[in-house]
Amino acid sequence: MHWSAVERIVGLLLMLFSVTMLPPAVVALIYGDPGLVPFLASFAVILAAGALAWLPVRHARYDLRTRDGFLVVVLFWTVLGASGGLPLLLSVDPDIGWTDAAFESLSGLTTTGSTVLTGIDDLPHSIRFYRQQLQWLGGMGIIVLAVAILPMLGVGGMQLYRAETPGPVKDAKLTPRIAGTAKALWYIYLGFTIACALAYWLAGMNAFDAIGHSFSTVAIGGYSTYDASIGHFESPLISMICVVFMLIAGVNFAMHFVAWRTRSLRHYLQDTEVCWFLGIMATLGVVVVATLMITRHEGGWGESLHHGIFQAVSIASTAGFTSAEFAAWPLFLPVLLVMAAFIGGCAMSTGGGIKVVRFVLLLKQGHREVIRLIHPQAQVLVKMGRRAVDERVINAVWGFFAAYIALFGLMMLVLMGTGLDQVTAFSAVAATITNLGPGLGEVSDHFGGINAPAKWVLMFAMLLGRLEVFTLLVLFTPAFWRR
């Protein structure tokens, strides 16, 4: 383990992150709110902390190994979550403690969208903007941005990219150089953000809300500048714009890169994962809308169609925006929506969950085992499209799924041990490990009312979900620390 190289990179990344305190400070100046001092103070503290870590080892030059990359990513997300909560802690409004500040910050950066805050409509504009910005930075992964910049500073990025990028297949490069890959992803990400902001603005949002909601929509985060989320605008047009961009952001960004390079959309419909993703969203939407119409819970067919489609896509993509109180919907709908979030978005998307490709491979592997019972000697391949999937990938998916479920059950039991009821514990862990945001029971509106130990458990769940479980778990194995 190259400790000096790890320390140098974390210091550089902290100094880079400190710059993100300046845009909210500018917003504070524009609107004349009291957020200016907390953000400038946070900028100075985080910059100084990064410099103190970097200066003693600034001349350390080592090639990063895979283990170094994992450690940098986990350390950075942990430190980033803590430092990101500093302006919230220093602010007079909201008046929250360290646990809540860290929870809000980490929830934003991991694009979970669970919040401990209420009265968001009345918070200073700088705080409201900062929450949206946190999700935008976390959406594609600030590490992916960093590997586009760090090569200029003499730091290799492949190990960071492999540890950070979501999805089971992490070695594919879109361009020959890893920095070029990261830049390509961020250009696409930025382009979608600008397009989303313009669409919101043309649909009737003011500039502040349009920019803020474009940040959290393309990041599939779910934070809003209002307590009522997208429902605040009471606009089917805005809701459908949100649906379109949530679907776009939930697709593998490599597909968008190919579309940009080839000027063609044909490959989307030729990709198995994309077809499954869109099929799951369509099926869920039909079930939700039909159930709402039959029960007449949302009134007429127009409201049922509007809220049913929006909530189906929002929850299943793990964005977590709300246009209605889906937790109060009839029959099985609330649980169905939360369970759909476990599937989540595609690999290499900004969505959470176990990822569609893993879900498809689990189904195909299950089908293969049934066929083997009937034909024990048959050689049955698991295919994605026309390609056979390597057995190591299938084993990795099964291992991921087993660890995911085991950790989910353990954290749910721990939460119940802190005094939460079954529904709240189940949905709280589900909402955080899938990076969904809203839950059921006591956490249907916000997470501010649960106890502090439960919040720290849920912060761990957010990290597990954002870092795809094994990136974090590997640090807890003795083999990782052996020479």
Give a count of the beta strands, DSSP E runs of length 2 or more: 2
* Contiguous uncertain segments of 5+ residues: none
The secondary structure category is mainly alpha
Radius of gyration from CA coordinates: 22 Å
Strand content: under 5%
Overall mean pLDDT: 88
What gross morphology would you assign?
globular
| Distance linking N and C termini | 8 Å
Q: Name the helicity range.
A: 55-70%
Describe the structure.
The chain has 483 residues and is an all-alpha fold. It is built from 23 helices and two strands. It has helices at residues 3-18, 22-31, 36-54, 66-84, 86-90, 98-109, 125-140, 142-149, 158-164, 178-202, 207-218, 236-249, 253-262, 266-270, 272-295, 301-316, 333-340, 356-374, 391-417, 422-433, 452-466, 470-473, 478-481; strands at residues 383-384, 387-388. A two-stranded antiparallel sheet has the order 1-2. Strand 1 and strand 2 (387-388) form a beta hairpin. Helix 1 (3-18) runs parallel beside helix 4 and helix 2 runs antiparallel to helix 7 (125-140). It is globular, with a radius of gyration of 22 Å. The protein starts with a helix and ends with a helix. The mean pLDDT is 88.
What topology does this entry show?
Layout: H1 3-18, H2 22-31, H3 36-54, H4 66-84, H5 86-90, H6 98-109, H7 125-140, H8 142-149, H9 158-164, H10 178-202, H11 207-218, H12 236-249, H13 253-262, H14 266-270, H15 272-295, H16 301-316, H17 333-340, H18 356-374, E1 383-384, E2 387-388, H19 391-417, H20 422-433, H21 452-466, H22 470-473, H23 478-481
Antiparallel strand pairs: 1-2
Helix pairs in contact: 1-3, 1-4, 2-3, 2-7, 4-6, 4-9, 6-7, 6-21, 7-8, 7-11, 8-10, 10-11, 10-12, 10-13, 12-16, 15-16, 16-17, 18-19, 19-20, 19-21, 20-21
